[in-house]
From TrEMBL:
Keyword Zinc attributed: no
Family: Belongs to the eukaryotic ribosomal protein eL31 family.
Top-rank taxon: Eukaryota
Gene: RPL31_2
Domain Ubiquitin-like: 4-73
Keywords: Ribonucleoprotein, Ribosomal protein
Name of the protein this chain belongs to: 60S ribosomal protein L31
Organism for this UniProt entry: Dissophora globulifera
Amino acid sequence: MSAIHIVIKTLYADEIPLSVLPLFTVKQLKDLVQEFTHVAAQDQRLVFMGQRLDNDHTTLRALNIMDGSTVYLAHLLQGCGMAKESKGTKRSTIHDVVAREYTIHLHKHVHGRSFKKRAPHAVKAIKAFAQKTMGTADVRLDPTLNKQIWSKGVKTVQHRIRVRLSRKRNDDEEAKEKLYTYVSYVPVTSFKGLETQVCDE
């Protein structure tokens, strides 16, 4: 059975892309979300199309969660019935420093582009993906990744590429952006079965 790609959107507008199977239960989805957000499964409140996903044994297919669906995540605060921001707190990027590996489908980004613009646009697409996924405006590409994108020339861009997105703290105290994302190339022999995964830095 093929995996579907969904997005978990948090209270802070962070977006977490996930690859899941349609037969995953709500409990399995919560366990996966816990890995990325560190919000315990029992403290999560997932909402899809205005419906709370309270039955942990229901499958995603039964809930009509399909490829491209967005599920919203709120988390319960102790002593509160509804999720809400506590006073005095500021928006935070999910637990600041984190590293994840993703497979990016470059072909859909460069399809229809003129030959001379394909490789440059692939670079832009990777940066845009990193900005959206990690919530940082400052994105830096590893030279090895750039070399891989251009390895077959400006015209021929590989269909898929595996990358590691590492959100780091900026050492420059005067920098406008306190966090940045470093994107590096991950060599793989096959993309089959690869899913988004959290990495140890």
